[in-house]
Amino acid sequence: MSESFPAATVVPLRDGADGLEVLMLRKNSKLAFGGMWVFPGGRVDPADCLPGESLSPAEPARRAAVREAVEEAALLLDVGSLVPFSHWEPPSAAPKRFNTWFFLAPVREAVEVVIDMGEIHDHGWLSPGDALARRDVGEYELAPPTWMTLWRLARAAAVDDALAEAAAVPVEYYTTRMVIEGPLMTAVWAGDAAYEGAGLDAPGGRRRLVMDPAGWRYEGG
After folding, report:
1. 61, 74, 150, 193: least CB-packed within 10 angstroms?
2. Taken in order 148, 159, 71, 122, is the CA torsion positive or negative?
3. Annotated domain spans of the chain
4. Mean pLDDT in residue range 115-120
C-alpha cells in the first residue's frame, strides 16, 4: 500500500442565471490528475495546522481548502462558510493516495477567477448537470470523487439548497475499492454487496459508480 497524504478540496458554488453553478479547473496534463477537470484543492500543509494539531482532521483541511482556492484561482473564501460534504480514501493500490476532505463554499458576489496557466490551464462556471454531460460525450475527464460530487449537487436548484442539504446530513465517507468484471470498471464503497469481495451481481446493497463507456451511472440510495 502506498503512502497516503491528507488533502482538501473546495467546491465553490454560485447562483447562475439558470440555477446552481460550480467552479471547475482543468489541471495541466503533465501533473498529477493531468488534464482532468477538478475543484480547487491540494495537500494539507503543516502551515495549515494550529499548534498541536495534526494534518488529518477537518479543521486543518478547511484552512487548506481556502488556501488552495487562492493559489489556484485567486478566489477568496470565508473559512467559516465552508460546509463539510464528503471524505474520500482512494484504493490501496493507487500510486498516489490522498485522503481528501471535500467542502462546499458559497460565492455570493461577482468575482474574477485568475489561473496561472501553469498548474491550471482552464476554468469555468457551469451547472453540475452540464459537467456530467460533458464527461459523457468525452469533452471532460473526471475522477470518481468529482463525478459523485457533481451528481449529488445536480439535485440542488440553488446555493442555499445545496448548503442546507449538506448541513442536514452526516458527511459521506467513501473508501474506494475498484472492481473489474469484463469491460466495465466499477467503484464500490461500504454498503455495497461487492465491497467485501463478492461479485457485482451478488444480492444485497448497492453503493457504486459504474464507469460504463456509454455513460457513467450511480447505483444506490
Report:
1. 74
2. positive
3. 4-174, 176-221
4. 82
Burial 129-166 (b: 16+ CB within 10 A, else e): ebbbebbeeeebbbebbbbbbbbbbbebeebebbbebb
Helix ranges restricted to H, 75-192: 128-136, 144-153, 159-168
Phi-psi region of 117 (alpha: psi -120 to 50; beta: other; left: phi over 0): left
- 10 phi/psi in degrees, rounded to 5: -120, 140
Angle at 21 (CA atoms; ends 177, 8), nearest 5 degrees:
45
User: How far apart (Å, rounded) are the C-alpha atoms in residues 90 and 159?
Assistant: 28
pTM of the predicted structure, to 2 decimals = 0.94
Residue 48's φ and ψ, nearest 5 degrees, are -80, -5
Q: How confident is the model over 154-204, as pLDDT tens digits?
A: 999 999 999 999 999 999 999 999 999 988 999 999 999 999 989 999 999
Q: Which three cell numbers stand for residue 80?
A: 467559516
Pick the CATH number of 4-174 from 3.80.30.20, 1.10.150.170, 3.40.50.720, 3.90.79.10: 3.90.79.10
